[in-house]
Specification:
Length: 78
């Protein structure tokens, strides 16, 4: 553009196309980050090593904070 090898319109179109493609890429990256965060919620990590000896919930059940009224979800033993 500085050497006037292309028209201003072509330069503007290329710039707008680049911005649109970057916006699509950013949106896709945000979608991937959201899916990865959702996958992380599938794992429960205990602060110590052990074996789950009792499971007081069904696999795949939605657990809402405070809904179990103090009941334990799992029992972990050494």
């Amino acid at each position: 553009m500085k050497k006037q090898a292309i028209s201003q319109q072509l330069a503007d179109q290329a710039s707008a196309d680049e911005a649109a493609k970057k916006a699509i890429m950013d949106a896709d990256e945000a979608n991937v980050n959201q899916l990865e965060a959702m996958e992380d919620y599938k794992n429960i990590v205990a602060p110590f090593d052990g074996i789950v000896t009792a499971r007081n919930t069904d696999i795949g059940a939605l657990i809402i904070a405070g809904s179990t009224a103090g009941l334990e979800l799992f029992e972990v033993s050494d």
